[in-house]
Design goal:
heterodimer; A: 222 residues; mainly alpha; 2 domains; 71% helix; B: 280 residues; mainly beta; 23 strands
């Protein structure tokens, strides 16, 4: 199976209901595998981004879980700052926040373009905590840049690949341009006024919308 | 002799053309199951779907050329109306298929159309339209309606069910609806709402840099939460300001308060677009 044919079947692949040959191709083709992986990661993460204030009790659970797994300890919190490099400038003073961010980077390295996943992933049953961590990441200044970086990688792959339907790629070009303009302006607003929660929320919405558009180009319903 | 044959040849040619034209049109009817799913997949053209009182799904398809074919099929609890490309390299003008469809009002509708226009009217169950660059018009729907476009504009009127409408750059217009739940979001298009609000209803409008304009009757009763980071926010209704539960962070314009007894909730947010709440 050629990549082009695979792209036509990729919607079924995403839903787990594709021709068996598509899965054979997926195993053999790292490019298509990376593309599917990215799209799954971006869309799932984008859809699982809740916006709510976690309770202090939940934060305590996050911290306890992180300490239990050796991911964070109050005494060793400074190590995250060294290890995270430039991202550490965004780490706030609140220790639980730092622990949550560390969890996010471990769970979500694929999304934010980090290579943290090269180290073994902890086996935490923390789906709710992960959700909370994602939520906090939305309000964290470095989030936008990292998400955008990853989306740029996905976009590059999508646009480089021959689309299954050239028309939809053409039709999406204008809206994608509008989205990029809006993202740039909103990011600029966030950079200028880091406390503007409305702009942050909007930035997150734009990223979700862009991920959806990219998926539509790659997996048209037509 | 040749001269005498000319009328015959002309008539034959006309007949052939007529037969050819006839071949571009397909009409089929299927018995409809209760709450049957009508699924339409088309690339270019106009799709018009009407609810009617007969227990039948009737489809009239007109294709512009032989570069495409209309495939109509009845399955268990569903009717599929799909356009199949026979020549993917044909120009868009040759890939046009127009569909006019009638179905029982309790049919569930799912439509995908890349460009052209969609009309759906007079249904009571769920309607979903994905139309990247097609304009969409919904009218008299009582069930849930979900519309997604990239650049296509959306018009919704006289609907009573839950409405979720999103677009990137298409404008969104809502007129005289009775829905109690509405989410309308786009990025660069305008959003226009003209109509009353239902008691207990929730209405959310969100865009990035387009205008949001809400035109409501003077008797409207609602909680208003309108915020724009950089755009103007205005309200014509007598208004009791309410303190923000959490003070807004960052310099943006905001109106938070109650109009009359606050029977519905209206939230309008924009990054740089203007928000206007006007009396009808």
């Amino acid at each position: 199976m050629e990549c082009k044919e695979f792209h036509r079947l990729s919607e079924g692949v995403l839903e787990g209901e594709a021709d068996p040959r598509a899965y054979q191709h997926l195993e053999a083709c790292p490019r298509c595998r990376a593309l599917i992986s990215d799209l799954v990661a971006v869309t799932q993460a984008a859809h699982s981004l809740p916006l709510y204030e976690p309770s202090p009790r939940l934060w305590a659970q996050i911290q306890a879980a992180a300490e239990q797994e050796g991911l964070w300890s109050p005494a060793g919190a400074w190590r995250w700052r060294d290890w995270l490099g430039p991202a550490s400038v965004y780490l706030p003073a609140r220790p639980a926040f730092a622990a949550a961010l560390a969890l996010v980077l471990l769970f979500g390295g694929a999304l934010v373009g980090s290579n943290v996943l090269e180290s073994p992933q902890p086996t935490l049953e923390l789906s709710r905590i992960e959700e909370v961590a994602w939520a906090e990441l939305v309000t964290e200044p470095g989030y936008g840049q990292r998400y955008q970086l990853h989306l740029q990688q996905v976009e590059k792959r999508v646009l480089e690949a021959e689309p299954a339907d050239g028309d939809i790629a053409g039709l999406a070009a204008g809206p994608l341009n509008d989205l990029d303009t809006a993202i740039t302006q909103t990011q600029s607003r966030v950079d200028q006024y880091p406390e503007d929660s409305l702009a942050r929320e909007e930035l997150n919405r734009l990223y979700q919308q862009k991920a959806t558009v990219l998926q539509a180009i790659n997996v048209p319903a037509w | 002799m040749i001269r005498s044959l000319r009328p015959v040849a002309l008539a034959a040619a006309t007949l052939l053309l007529a037969v050819g034209a006839q071949a571009q049109r397909i009409e089929k009817s299927f018995p409809a199951d209760p709450e049957t799913l009508l699924e339409v997949r088309n690339q270019v053209g106009h799709v018009r779907v009407h609810g009617w009182s007969q227990p039948l799904v009737k489809v009239v398809a007109v294709r512009s050329s032989r570069a495409v074919e209309a495939h109509l099929e009845k399955r268990t609890n569903s009717v599929h109306v799909h356009t199949h490309p026979l020549d993917r390299n044909a120009p868009a003008s040759e890939r046009v298929v127009d569909y006019e469809i009638w179905a029982p009002p309790d049919a569930e509708i799912s439509i995908y159309l890349e460009s052209g226009s969609v009309l759906v009217e007079n249904f009571t169950q769920d309607v979903r339209v994905d139309a990247p660059a097609a304009d969409v018009r919904l009218s008299r729907l009582d069930g849930r309606a979900t519309v997604n476009t990239l650049s296509g504009s959306v018009e919704v009127e006289h609907c009573a069910g839950r409405l979720v409408v999103t677009s990137v750059s298409g404008s969104l217009r809502f007129r005289d609806n009775e829905s109690r739940y509405l989410i309308a979001g786009n990025t660069s298009g305008d959003i226009f709402y003209d109509g009353d609000l239902q008691r207990g209803g929730s209405y959310e409008f969100r865009n990035n840099n387009g205008a949001i304009e809400l035109v409501l009757p003077a008797s409207a009763s609602f909680e208003l939460n309108a915020q724009s980071s950089e755009g103007e926010v205005t309200n014509e209704f007598p208004f009791t300001p309410r303190a923000h539960g959490r003070p807004p962070r960052g310099p943006y314009r905001s109106l938070l308060g109650t109009v009359q007894s606050g029977d519905a909730v209206v939230r309008a947010t924009s990054l740089s677009g203007r928000i206007r709440v006007r009396k009808r």
